[in-house]
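Q: Convert this sequence to structure tokens.
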Amino acid sequence: MSALDLAAGTIRRDETVEIVLLLAFAGGYIDAYTWIIHGVMANAQTANLIFLWVNATAGDWTKALHFVPPLLAFAAGIVVAAWLRRVACERASAISTLLEILLLIAISILHNRVPDLAGTLGISFVAAMQTAIFTKVEGVTCSTVMATGNLRQAIETVFGAFAGGAPPGTLRRSGIFFALCAVFGVGAAAGAFATKTVPNLALGIPVATLLIVLLRCEASDQSAVQ
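A:
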């Protein structure tokens, strides 16, 4: 599925490899930022849930309750994303990306005044919207905020390609999923470096990345109208 497929309308702009890789970079970056600054995961709510119960069973309720706000914020973000898909339809991806950008800018501004509120609530909310709105690459389910599912699909498609009987394009699909994992890792590395080097400006990079996503989505929508 290339530019010809996109022009023919067989895949949505927000499901193209370009857009999904940009989002994976932002997803890895934001998770590294949130872990370093706030000690919670923005995207990987499984980790937050595990840390919650590990600390709770040890009787350390202060540490356990530290992981509750991002879980609640993530749930709220999923609800808002579901509502956006219902009322905005094809525009949901562009609107959610704009909201992500505005929230990250607000978090950067508020970080020194209300760091816990801005970090654990705002960023998990942003991550939830991204994971709920951008769910596919070229029509196949993927994740732009974690690597586990993408790695599984990459390995399965490689096995299918070499075991025989797999449809055409299977190896290409595997390459896309391996690329998603790699780019997510690069994003995490960049997020860790920037957060430790320039913490007050670190969120500028995912904001710029999401701005590119927004412009690409908007450019596609306008060309479709014309």
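The chain has ten helices and two strands.
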